[in-house]
Amino acid sequence: MQLETYISDLLYRYDCVIVPNFGAFLTHRVSAKIHETTHSFYPPKKALSFNEQLQTNDGLLANYIAEIEKVPYSVAVEKISKQVKSIKSYLIGGETIALNAIGDLILNAEGQINFEPSHHINYLTDAFGLSQFTSTTVSRETHKAAVENIEEVIPLTITPEKRNSNTKRPYLKYAAIALIALTIGGFTASHYYVNQIENHNQLAQEEANQQLEAKVQEATFVIDNPLPAATLTVEKPSGNYHIVAGAFRVEANSNKKVEQLRGLGYKARKIGVNRYGLHEVVYSSHTGRLDALNALKTVKRNHNRDAWLLVKALD
């Protein structure tokens, strides 16, 4: 079993993939950036890291392996355990574990796992098809210097226009005065016309509002025997993260289990029949992964140590 292949597949869809009794591979989004020195453009991506403290099995990896390899969940958990033991033995022996498309793992002097992520894979699906590229340097000083050199060789001067004082055109002066007068008169008339239209529209709007208000005041609605108001609060379970209590071959037993858990205060329900023909019963369903993990810890501590987390989208 190539464990890194399954981890890599899940990293495209999830920000945290926990390998039970080993550690968790985490991702966080990094924005696009430009390197000012090399003029290189880098697209947005998911940066990959490793946390050795997160080792509790959340069921994500095991369920995915069980689904892909068509094996029971317990068999998938056992396969992961064997793979982890093998990896740990190689690390203790001083070898570097190279996980394809993920990164390299090695033990440091303190016995902790150091992780060097691979930079060849971008797990951010929004950036699919984008790659790094380098732009040529744009220089503007060269063009500025060339223009300055041209101005030194060919100086530009502005010569004012000379008019002949002996030529007199008095009719142009009167024509200009008449044009200015017509322009002012037209602007004044236009402004007056616009004001008249606005006043008319305002009066019409006020009259329409008064008529509407009068009609509303005349309308009355009488109900002799009004029905009492009834308020129903219905909470519909939702979410793709389910705390599994058990799976039963006989449906009557699953119904009995739901009633028993509800009597203990859990929001228990049935979520359907799995591919093995078993009726699955859950303590509760959650929309957030963190809420589901906290609820799973509470159930394990207070009621059932064998409860586990199922990630499944319901119809």
Structure description:
The chain contains seven helices and 13 strands. The chain has 315 residues and is α+β, with helices and mostly antiparallel strands. Strand 3 and strand 4 form a beta hairpin. It is flat, with a radius of gyration of 39 Å. It starts with a helix and ends with a strand.
List the main descriptive attributes of the protein structure presented here:
single chain, 315 residues, alpha+beta, Alpha-Beta Plaits, 4-stranded antiparallel sheet, 3-stranded antiparallel sheet, 7 helices, 41% helix
Q: Could you write a compact summary of the structure shown?
A:
This protein is of the alpha+beta class.
Could you give the topology of this structure?
Blueprint: H1 3-11, E1 16-19, E2 23-30, E3 33-35, E4 40-42, E5 45-51, H2 60-69, H3 73-92, E6 97-99, E7 103-107, E8 113-117, E9 133-134, H4 141-153, H5 170-218, E10 241-248, H6 251-263, E11 269-273, E12 279-286, H7 289-302, E13 308-311
Antiparallel strand pairs: 1-2, 2-5, 3-4, 4-9, 6-7, 7-8, 10-12, 10-13, 11-12
Helix pairs in contact: 2-3
